[in-house]
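Please decode residue identities from the backbone states below.
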């Protein structure tokens, strides 16, 4: 009885998950894609203008930094010159001080006798004595004057030295501020250059979509996915409808699911180069590498552009797209090829922004590469990132598994 109840409960939960599946079947028209080419082209020109402006600002900042570095070097050289002058002045003071001591010694009493008087009375005449007295006084006054001037020069040099050191610190702070501003501008440029996918990729994709859907005979305002499905049915080349999905690797374990910023499910395996299969029969929609290197989307853990395969499926009369990311290599496949759930489309790897070998699986009801939507969407319709489907709503991912 318990087993029957468990089976019934599982069936109900499975049906509920299908009913609750958030598939937005609305798609763009050719006219909207043409509008998108115009809008993205304008945005690309604006970004190019911003890059040129940023490069000009960085060049100007570099000039200012070079000028500041010259000023810092001049200040440091002047400080060294002042230090040398202070040192020489101090030595001169010491020398003059010693001379004064020798002169003053004539005024001092030695062995109870007045040495000065001995010097003075040693004169041969009154004129000679007056001359000797005058010489002693003049030398003493001169040395005192020189020492006073040197002391004032030292004080002045020390004050100038302090001002220069203060200026040097201010220049260093200004240099750091300019370097921070330079880093901010360069980071902004990196963000502009390294958005994923790039604006140019989105322009090319929109143009390809216009060309492709016009070749099918879709009307300018016709829902393109409905048109594509209608044309495929009429030509007998429609994709086989699938009602269930399998895990993409034969054995492995669950790593993590969808959360804010993480757009799919991650899984891995003890076999780091295990074969990857489609989750169901379909057609190879795209084989490409993303534009992810550094900055905005990939701040760390980047090992090169991620290899990606996208498979298009007919899910009960509606198209959905499954993406297999971080592949080490592609299988023997090509775009437009019909594949079964057992076809090898690639091998698990760690290309792109990845911490180690794993497979990232994304599912959406459109794809930005000629799959009915743009990457971000616009005010008229939701984009790829808004039309993702949680893979766990379609596929059971236990903690680990030994078969698909």
């Amino acid at each position: 009885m318990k087993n029957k109840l468990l089976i019934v409960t599982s069936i109900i939960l499975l049906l509920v998950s299908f009913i609750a599946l958030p598939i937005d079947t609305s798609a763009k028209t050719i006219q909207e894609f043409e509008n998108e080419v115009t809008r993205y082209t304008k945005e690309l020109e604006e970004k190019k203008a911003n890059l040129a402006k940023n490069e000009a600002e960085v060049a100007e900042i570099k000039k200012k930094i070079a000028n500041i570095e010259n000023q810092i070097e001049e200040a440091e050289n002047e400080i060294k010159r002042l230090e040398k002058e202070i040192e020489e002045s101090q030595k001169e003071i010491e020398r003059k001080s010693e001379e004064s001591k020798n002169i003053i010694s004539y005024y001092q009493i030695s062995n109870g006798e007045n040495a000065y008087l001995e010097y003075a009375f040693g004169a041969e005449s009154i004129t000679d004595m007056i001359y000797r007295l005058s010489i002693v006084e003049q030398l003493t006054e001169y040395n005192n004057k020189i020492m006073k001037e040197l002391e004032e020069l030292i004080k002045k040099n020390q004050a100038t030295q302090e001002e220069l050191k203060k200026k040097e610190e201010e220049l260093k702070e200004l240099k750091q501020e300019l370097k921070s501003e330079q880093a901010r501008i360069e980071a902004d440029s990196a963000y502009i250059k390294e958005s994923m996918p790039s604006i140019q990729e989105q322009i090319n994709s929109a143009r390809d979509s216009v060309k492709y859907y016009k070749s099918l005979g879709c009307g300018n305002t016709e829902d393109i996915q409905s048109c594509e499905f209608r044309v495929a049915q009429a030509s007998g080349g429609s994709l086989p409808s699938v009602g269930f999905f399998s895990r993409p690797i034969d054995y492995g374990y669950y790593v993590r699911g969808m959360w804010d910023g993480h757009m799919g499910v991650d899984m891995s395996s003890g076999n780091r180069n295990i074969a990857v299969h489609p989750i169901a029969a379909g057609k190879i929609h795209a084989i490409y590498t993303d534009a992810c290197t550094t900055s905005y989307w990939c701040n760390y853990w980047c090992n090169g552009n991620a290899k990606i395969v996208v498979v298009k499926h007919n899910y009960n009369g509606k198209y959905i797209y499954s993406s297999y990311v971080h592949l080490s290599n592609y299988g023997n496949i090509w775009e437009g090829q019909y594949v079964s759930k057992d076809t090898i489309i690639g091998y698990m790897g760690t290309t792109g922004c990845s911490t180690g070998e794993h497979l990232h699986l994304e599912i959406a009801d459109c794809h930005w590469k000629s799959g009915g939507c743009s990457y971000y969407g616009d005010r008229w319709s939701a984009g790829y990132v808004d039309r993702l489907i949680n893979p766990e709503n379609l596929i059971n991912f236990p903690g680990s598994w030994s078969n698909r």
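Observation: Confidence is low (pLDDT under 50) at residues 1-26, 107-117, 293-300.
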